[in-house]
Design brief:
alpha/beta; 45% helix; hypothetical protein PF0899 fold; globular; three-stranded mixed sheet
């Protein structure tokens, strides 16, 4: 493992520990759900090119959303950074600019969160908001 990879892993571990302290829960489940969504939607275009969706929508139950946003607005960026490191480790290419949008939802199936992905050429975190 190179020094840079070791540093990235240490930073990711530190982030997960901080998230666990803030939320009182392990962040591994949500991060793993994002990684699974990425992996499940990977498209092998050639031996050298594996494309993955670039826009990820994380819907959180009211209580989870409130807890995360109470501690700041950097959660979406932290999840984006973690997903970017995951893709880099696997050699994935994004279908466009990567973003993770966090939203409140009263209809999450497991009472905590739902993760979905799609390919969007021009995207920003604000671009995920659905019409009322």
């Amino acid at each position: 493992m190179s020094a840079l990879s070791a540093l990235e892993q240490a930073l990711e571990n530190r982030w997960e520990a901080l998230w666990a302290r803030i939320t009182g829960k392990e962040p591994v489940e949500l991060l793993d759900a994002l990684r699974r969504e990425c992996d499940a939607n990977a498209v092998v275009c050639s031996e050298q090119l594996v494309m993955v969706p670039n826009a990820y929508d994380v819907e959180l139950a009211d209580s989870v959303h409130e807890e995360l946003t109470r501690h700041g607005s950097g959660v979406g960026q932290a999840l984006t950074d973690s997903l970017a490191r995951h893709a880099e480790r696997h050699g994935y290419e994004w279908a466009g600019p990567l973003t993770v949008h966090i939203a409140r939802s009263r209809q999450v199936p497991n009472g905590r969160y739902r993760v979905a992905s799609r390919v969007m050429q021009h995207v920003s975190a604000d671009g995920f908001q659905r019409p009322a």
